[in-house]
TrEMBL record:
The keyword Protein transport does not apply. TPR repeats lie at residues 228-261, 262-295, 296-329. Residues 1-22 form the signal peptide. Keywords: Hydrolase, Protease, Signal, TPR repeat. Gene3D superfamilies: Tetratricopeptide repeat domain (1.25.40.10), Trypsin-like serine proteases (2.40.10.10). One of its GO terms (molecular function) is serine-type endopeptidase activity. This is Tetratricopeptide TPR_1 repeat-containing protein.
Amino acid sequence: MLPIKKALLCCVLLALFAPNTAAWPQEDLPAIVKRISPAVVVVETRKGGRRGLGSGFFINSQGHIVTNYHVVFGADQATVKTYDGKRYLVKKVLTEDKKADLVLLAIDIPPHTVSYLEVTGKLPEVGEKVYAIGHPMGLEKTVSEGIVSAIRKMPRLGEIIQITAPISQGSSGGPVFNASGRVIGVARATYRTGQNLNFAVPGEKVLRLRSGGGQTFGEFSQEMPGTALEQFQRGRLLHTQKKYHKAVQAFQEAISVKPDFAEAYYGVGMSYGAMGRHQLAIDNFRQAVRLQPNNPVFHFHLGVAYHVSGDTQQAMEEYRTLSRLNPNLARKLKGIMER
């Protein structure tokens, strides 16, 4: 064969068999999701009459589950709902990493029924396409797509992956995976002054979790919540002392440890309201309401903030909601609006 013909043949063969990396993730994503989904679980929590929701995933054949620490933080009981709809009580907390916001849970599940995910400790590239799967607002097995927008170092959390894939309440603790289906991080949503910033705790921190003897979930739930509660109480004290700027900082510290801490968002709203920063107060009251939609006190103060800011229409919406939740507070709000 002539040299030119050989060269042409080589080029054709390379073109035929070279992987199409640009198209592959989109073409194979349904297959990856189908493979990953059985390993993703719903984490349901209960504290008194309040219920919480998060995501998690199996990381080994023993049925050990990774989720965010804040998902089970402060709960009296936690239940895992698997892909087939079965529910299992969380028996043990094997290990925890509060700084990384990670926890390793154990349930009694037959090993042959467990599908688990591979975690990589290698950080993704900025601009790399990633996917998240979880249960935002209770909508199970929701897949979202985005890119890695930055690798950052943040106070308390350390190194963390910032992503554009949406992460909402209920998705925290779910896997964030790359185009090959390997888990590169654990979803963690953070809310700050009107915008959602989406993060993933790097896979390397998941791989560091070591399952020891651990403790029963009952023992875990009896632990006095640490930094979040301490900062929340500090914020309340600073607010009563009219040190509103410092109160906001303390409440936000509590939120950085426990992102679904509704009362802390409420505290931020109260302090901003006292400073006359009504839009920031509204942003935080709305977040508190999103986390606890049936809390009449949150709706009342959100209604007052709307009224003070001149948004009569939204204030009336809160009045109507309060009429259903707490008629006494509804009448109080109406009295303020009619002044």
